[in-house]
């Protein structure tokens, strides 16, 4: 589950540790995250100018969620 927190910290909230310290650069606002056993749901609000939200999931998986869309991902339980 630590990978899910990394996803939230870096991919959504925009927290990144760098040589100057902790960087904060929110990429999207109003994102909804839903976690149920074995699944993680991400909803990105509709925006005419925002790019798709990049996601880096556990196990080296990469995906994205376009504005106005919702996607569910299988997550390892335990």
Structural commentary:
- With 78 residues, the protein is of the alpha+beta class.
- It has one domain (2-74).
- It contains one helix and seven strands.
- The strands form three sheets. Strands 3-4-7 form a three-stranded antiparallel sheet, with no helix packed on it.
- The model has no long low-confidence stretch (mean pLDDT 78).
Characteristic key phrases:
alpha+beta, two-stranded antiparallel sheet, 1 helix
* Shape designation: globular
**Count the helices. How many?**
1
**What is the strand content?**
35-45%
Mean pLDDT comes to: 78
End-to-end distance, in Å?
Answer: 8 Å
- The number of strands is 7
Instruction: Outline the biggest β-sheet.
Output: 3 strands, antiparallel
Low-confidence stretches: none
Global structural class: alpha+beta
* Widest β-sheet, arrangement of strands: 3-4-7
Number of domains: 1
